[in-house]
Amino acid sequence: MKIKILTVFPQMVEPFLRESMLQKAVEKELVEFEVIDIRDFSTDKHKTVDDTPFGGGGGMVLKPEPIVSALEDALAELKKPRIILTSASGRTFCQESAQKFSQEKSLVFICGHYAGVDERVKELFQVEEISIGDFVLTGGEIPALAMIDATVRLIPGVLGNFDSAENDSFQKGLLGYPHYTKPQEFRGKKVPEVLISGNHKEIAKWRRQKALEITYLNRRDLLERIRLTKEDHKLVDEIKKTIARKG
Length: 247
Hints:
Elements: E1 2-7, H1 10-17, H2 20-27, E2 32-37, E3 50-51, E4 61-62, H3 64-75, E5 82-92, H4 95-101, E6 106-110, E7 116-117, H5 119-124, E8 127-131, H6 141-152, H7 163-166, E9 185-186, E10 189-190, H8 200-218, H9 220-223, H10 230-246
Parallel strand pairs: 1-2, 1-6, 4-7, 5-6, 5-8
Antiparallel strand pairs: 3-4, 9-10
Helix pairs in contact: 4-6, 8-10
């Protein structure tokens, strides 16, 4: 996969791409990154990339000329890439989005900034506006990197054990269950007996129950989106009773 990131602050992006799983993905030749500085495509001596909005109002708007030139340069060698503009006005990114992105041959991210991007950029190209949540950041670099990280780790071969990705929160509609490792006891806190019992059926049941419990407590809306089994419904009923007893 080829991923290109258009930004006015490349120094925010480049270090992140050289760490952890993203760097390993590059070393395995599973992904190729290119960071493109939009300022390099500005035509004036000051490398201007923004200007005041027509119609008045506060803030600055990213000019169309530098972005379009940078985008055309990025698209030159790509076949049918997916173009994503980070924007608070876009649809919300989720695990399903990451799964779909991970199946693409190429992705191009435009990091939004200031009050926004000149609307003509979106009119000239097939651009998807995507947000990472109902809040506003100073720029689109962090959202772009969050989406890239979520996407790349799902490319087969990036993670040493792909089963770890299969059990991620949201991957199967639920939040993740608790995890434990050595030592077996730490500061008086012991690992649940079921996890060291060797009984894989009971371990699976415990993990499912905990995932349902955490989802019920923190993101009850997710339970309405997935099909629960009869056993799941029983576990949820037990969870409700336990919570009611605790007050």
